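TA notes, week 10

Several of you asked for a full example with nothing omitted. So below is the full record: structure tokens for the whole chain, then the designed sequence directly under it. When grading your own attempts, check the secondary structure regions first.
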């Protein structure tokens, strides 16, 4: 079943409240996805730096001494901010691939959740309100955010199987539905150089959009192209460094509602996810049309 929320701010005055607004939205979707939850927040970039969100099942040991190990082996001067099972590692721009390779070789217990100038992703098994509190979502600031509550139907309940999925710099996707052609598409994407961490069909959708954007498309164009290449039932909410997109499959059997004011654009699997947003009484509220791309970019 799963629940999705998303909030794209047009008004910079609301950016300090982004986390608290999205936390409230996510809490309304708990019974749609009690197995696990996650969220992506797009915050302020730091000049000349890249953020890597890491996850470990043994953070006390895996994150201890990590900065010193990376400096000794790669020469990278980094900073590390630990939040429960996750940590944000900040490295010089252009060094993320070097660091990722070292993590894969010397720290196999650490997984990379996201890489980019602005994105941070946090996701874990557990009830959504607990996951949000665990990573202090309410205190986070930024320009836009996407959240997901998962009810697993086709794969195991694991941290890596939780949403959002990130397969490219400052990109992420959350999904409600099921893809029928994900195995064939996965093979095609692997031949094109994409890599995968899970067997989840939603990761294939994320990788597909990354692949299309690597070809020079923006998010809106990549979403348009997906309508002819992805089979199944789906609502996707997708984030990039500067963009926020929504698409429903041509049958549109999964619930979805959107709202927009001069201050923000929001998505929810149900209207109750939107009722706490400022100015909702004056918002334009509508159900997204089937096979239609909705896309905002700053």
């Amino acid at each position: 079943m799963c629940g999705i929320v998303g909030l794209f701010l047009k008004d910079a005055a609301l950016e300090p409240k982004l986390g608290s607004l999205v936390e409230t939205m996510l809490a309304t979707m708990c019974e749609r996805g009690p197995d696990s939850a996650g969220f992506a927040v797009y915050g302020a970039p730091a000049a000349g730096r890249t953020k890597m969100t890491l996850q470990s099942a043994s953070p006390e040991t895996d994150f201890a001494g990590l900065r010193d190990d990376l400096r000794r082996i790669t020469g990278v001067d980094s900073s590390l901010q630990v939040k429960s099972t996750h940590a944000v590692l900040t490295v010089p721009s252009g060094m993320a691939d070097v660091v990722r390779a070292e993590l894969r070789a010397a720290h196999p217990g650490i997984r990379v959740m996201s890489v980019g100038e602005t994105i941070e992703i946090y996701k874990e098994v557990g009830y959504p309100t607990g996951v949000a509190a665990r990573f202090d979502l309410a205190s986070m600031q930024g320009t836009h955010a996407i959240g997901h509550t998962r009810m697993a139907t086709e794969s195991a309940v694991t941290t890596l199987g939780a949403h959002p999925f990130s397969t490219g710099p400052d990109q992420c996707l959350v999904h409600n539905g099921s893809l029928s052609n994900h195995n064939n598409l996965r093979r095609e994407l692997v031949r094109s150089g994409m890599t995968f961490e899970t067997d989840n069909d939603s990761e294939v959708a994320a990788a597909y959009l990354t692949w299309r954007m690597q070809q020079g498309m923006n998010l809106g164009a990549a979403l348009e192209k997906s309508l002819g290449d992805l089979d199944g039932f789906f609502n996707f909410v997708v984030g990039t460094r500067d963009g926020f997109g929504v698409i429903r499959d041509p049958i549109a059997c999964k619930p979805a509602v959107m709202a927009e004011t001069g201050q923000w654009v929001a998505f929810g699997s149900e209207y109750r996810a939107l009722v706490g947003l400022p100015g909702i009484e004056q918002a334009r509220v509508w159900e997204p049309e089937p096979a239609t791309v909705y896309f905002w970019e700053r």
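The chain has two domains: 3-44+139-297, 45-117. Use that as a sanity check on your answer.
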